[in-house]
Amino acid sequence: MPTCHLDNRALFQLQGPEAEHFLQNVITNDLSALKDGECRPSALLTPQGKILFDFLVSRAGSETLRIECRTDIAADLVKRLTLYKLRAKVDISEIEQRTIAVSWQSDSASSEKDSTLTDCRFPADLNVRRHYGETPEADSTRELWDELRIANAVAESGNDFALGDAFPHDVLYDQNGGIGLKKGCFVGQEVVSRMHHRGTARRRLLITESDSDLPPPGTELRADGKPLGTLGTVSGPKGLAIVRIDRVKDAMDTGTPVLAGDTAVTFAIPQWASFTFPESTESAG
Fold first, then answer.
1. Angstrom distance (rounded) from CA 116 to CA 135
2. In the list 64, 82, 151, 234, which could disulfide-bond 239, CB 3.0-4.6 Å?
3. pTM summary value
4. Can you list the positions of beta strands (E) in 164-284?
């Protein structure tokens, strides 16, 4: 059971009789489907539908929800939630934990006692766990954790996209349970719903591969001089990238090489995803 420590994560909680109702009305995830022992991807969007903050949400007891996010955005996220809170009976407070442990290929089940939760962004057979509270000893590296994220197309802001620059569909939140498309209103919901039902999502997170080591994150991807996107997390010859899938399909159909700098790359849709490459540039859903 590989275990890795992440020291760039922060935890806080929302507690009170109106905590769930309040959060349900502003974030993308449908909390009515959130089970004990799970943490699920979610986001707070701009009114224009772009991701302002990304995070994981889980239950932490009666009338209490827990949020895990990047350390450097935690204060701003709390400030924004406090702005939306108005008179709702919700207390927002920090949880004192500076290191989060993640493990995978674990035989253990979720435990309320030690707050070991299933990370639902990954396939169930990998049994990826996040450990809140007591932190088990690390015996793996951040590089191996990144390799796991790449192999399963799990994007995180900072590494794979800039906040304020991506729609939830870009980072596959419509595929991995990060959006409650039937839950009703939330901030930015109208744009997200229109994009989903019209099938107009042209940018998608794909797994990128090359015959040699990929260049650094942020390297632009081009085909015949046209920009397709940029590299995100990389590990040796594999990485993640949010790209225009219509332009990728055009390059595939014409045999035009796609280059990251001077390195030729190929793309794959994650096996668990339900979308496909468009048949033409007019159909990019």
1. 10
2. 234
3. 0.92
4. 203-209, 220-223, 226-235, 238-244, 258-260, 263-268
